Amino acid sequence: MSRRGKRDQDLAERLHSAAIHLLRRLRIQDLASGIGPAKLSALSVLVFSGRPLSLAQLAAAEQVKNPTMSRLVAGMEEDRLVKIQSAQKDARSIQITPTARGKALLLAGRKRRVDSLAKAVGTLNEEELQHMEHATELLREIIGKL
């Protein structure tokens, strides 16, 4: 492996580790929602998709099988986080949409995570803050290439 290749690999390892640790630390804020991580993740897909999704679409987005997603959706419906309707074009299919309660719960959780992260970012000095802003833009570019 070339020097550049090794450097790229080492940086990718550190970035991967940092991303996982960041998400794990921020996920602690989700405990306040009273909803499990699987439901929150599926609810996030629904809220940020901006449109109703079928069970198959939601399962694919969450990388789970339809029966698993069916159980999650049933639980979210019981918690009044989503609304399930028959699809107009195919009565055998369903369309899942977040309820106002579901959206509010998800957005409140997002606010807690962002506020927690903003508090940590607030400890950076001006130079570090500029580096972080640049690194964030680079990270968005990298994500677009995945």
Which series of helices and strands comes N to C?
A: HHHHEEHH
> Could you tell me the radius of gyration in angstroms?
19 Å
Largest sheet: 2 strands, antiparallel
Number of strands: 2
How far apart lie the N and C ends?
22 Å
* Percent range of helical residues: 55-70%
Outline type: globular
Mean pLDDT: 93
State the strand order across the main sheet: 1-2
Which structural class best describes the helix and strand composition? mainly alpha
Number of helices: 6
SSE blueprint and pairings:
Elements: H1 3-27, H2 37-49, H3 55-62, H4 66-78, E1 82-86, E2 94-98, H5 100-121, H6 126-145
Antiparallel strand pairs: 1-2
What does the model show?
This protein has 146 residues and is mainly alpha-helical. 69% of the residues lie in helices and 7% in strands. It contains six helices and two strands. It has helices at 3-27, 37-49, 55-62, 66-78, 100-121, 126-145; strands at residues 82-86, 94-98. Strands 1-2 form a two-stranded antiparallel sheet. Strand 1 (82-86) and strand 2 form a beta hairpin. Helix 2 crosses helix 3 (55-62), helix 2 crosses helix 4 and helix 3 packs across helix 4 (66-78). The protein is globular and about 55 Å long. It starts with a helix and ends with a helix.
